[in-house]
Amino acid sequence: MRPHESTLVYAVYGLLLAHKGIGFLPAFVLFGSRLLVIFCLAVLHMRKEGLRIQLLPVYCVAVWATLVLVEGWSWWLLQAVVTLSAAAACIFPVRTLAAPEGLPFSVGRKVVSIARRSSLGKSLYVTVFFPAAQPAAAQVSSSYVAANSKVFSGIARFIHVSRVLLHHLYYTRASIQDGVPIESGKNPHQLVVFSHGLGATPDVYLHTIQSLVCRGCVVLAAQHADGSAAHALSRDDDTGLVRDIMYHRPGDCDEVALLALRQRQLQHRVDELCDILDAVRQSQSDHTPLTPYVRDGVCVANSVAAVGHSFGAATVLSAAHKDSRITACALLDLWGFPLSEEVKERAVIGQPCLFLNSENFSNWTSNQDVCLAICDRAIHKNTRLDTIMGTTHQLASDFPFLMSKFVGKKAGLLGEADAVQSKALHDAALVSFLRQNSGLQCDAVVVELAEATAGSATARPKQE
Questions:
Q1: Which residues of 232-255 are buried (b: 16+ CB within 10 A; e: fewer)?
Q2: H or E element in which residue 8 lies
Q3: Is residue 129 within 8 Å of 108, Cβ to Cβ?
Q4: Pairing of the two strands 231-236 and 122-131
């Protein structure tokens, strides 16, 4: 429900429940009308948002107000609760993430598990986003996260806030189809491997992933089971036991210990990306859970682009340095801290790389120096470093669009530039890079937006 809809509902709620102004009505009429209002509003909210925690105080007060005639201080208490609940609904709105309009494909989603070659006896869960066979007109809204509410518990643990403040995200919907077949047309789809950032999951990058899938990409997003994700699943193949792996908070430790932890996690993540590439290759000859999405004729399996954000960008860069099966890298706000000294100081990346930074991340001098050094050593002519001005680190994720503007500004999720326009430029730069370096078909809108980035971004192309 949109904020203004919630406000209208609460306003009508407060007026109808108030005793003042309708005191001329008989008591049994008041009693019956109040019960009817409570029932109707409960049904409305359940259909629109689910029974949100923020609404429970209002319903409790409503039941109390139904049983007594509200007078004096009680009437003002009722109005205060209604007003505060209306404010909570506006500050923490429930939204629906719609897929980009005017693009040829709708988005399907499937969570599969693949055997890990780097860790025998373990399985890695991968969320597959793919062009769906059903047209967009038949698309229905599905749950925003593919797993469950533990994702939001992990995010709350990562950002050190109460889970209650993120409870509204549990009812967020997305224009995604679960359990549908992949579209198999005359042109094979581009294969993209995605690595999420620290304290996140693949689901919270849905806006970016939708932009790729709607243009014909199959995105394999790893659920990194190293303790760096908000929540991930891991299965023991011998026992069949599936474990929930929540975000591991380091606690109080010095920089040396923290670096050692992040580098262990980075190595684990790199191994997981290589396991996905191995599973893609195996799926060409054997039937695996990935086969329907990466088989010959449906997907271009010999050209794999990799996209990562923050810690995920460090993962992609390290994997590309190790595995030449990755043919192009898009590094969104590369986090240089966990990179090994070899990658930081000596690695020469042969694949084309896009370093796509937000302004506040590019202002982090020590981190930007790492990006510039790696960019300068890269040998491919299409390697470039772009910065989108007026933006923050969370631009690549969905959080600027899931929160209200008030929370977005206070939490540093929104920059000075318009979030919708900045995200359009961000996705245009990403899609344009993949079009140039991996064969992805690019629509006219993206070409126009990419050309328009001159006024909103700074670019540093690779020098010949």
A1: bbbbeeeeeeeeebbbbeeeeeee
A2: helix 3-17
A3: yes
A4: antiparallel
CA separation for the pair 360, 324 (Å, rounded): 32
Q: What are phi and psi of 424, to 5 degrees?
A: -60, -40
**Is 50 a residue whose pLDDT tops 80?**
no
Q: Residues 281-319: pLDDT tens digits?
A: 999 888 888 999 998 888 888 889 999 999 999 999 999
The pLDDT tens digits of the residues spanning 418-432 come to 999 999 999 999 999
Helix (H, G, I), strand (E, B) or coil at 460: strand
Report, as an integer, the average pLDDT of 319-326: 94
| CA–CA separation, 326 and 306 (whole Å) | 7
CA 23 to CA 57: how far, in whole Å?
Answer: 25
Strands 242-246 and 299-309: unpaired
Lowest model confidence (mean pLDDT) among 15-24, 52-61, 134-143, 196-205? 15-24
* CB distance 85 to 58 below 8 Å: yes
Q: How many helices (H) and strands (E) does the chain have?
A: 16, 15
Cα 343 to Cα 322, 372, 388, 407, distances in angstroms: 10, 13, 25, 37
pLDDT for 176-199, tens place per residue?
A: 888 888 988 778 899 999 999 999
Of the candidates 42, 49, 45, the residue with the CA atom closest to the CA atom of residue 141: 49
360 φψ region: left (φ > 0), alpha (ψ -120 to 50), beta (else): alpha
Q: What is the DSSP string of 390-424?
A: T--GGGGSSHHHHS-HHHHHHTT---SS-HHHHHH
**Distances in whole angstroms, Cα of residue 100 to Cα of each of 167, 174, 368, 446:** 26, 12, 31, 12
pLDDT tens readout for residues 138-169: 455 667 776 566 888 888 889 888 887 787 78
Total-model pTM:
0.83
Neighbours of 437 (CB within 10 A): 21
What pLDDT is attached to residue 28? 65
Q: Which helix (H) or strand (E) holds 263?
A: helix 255-283
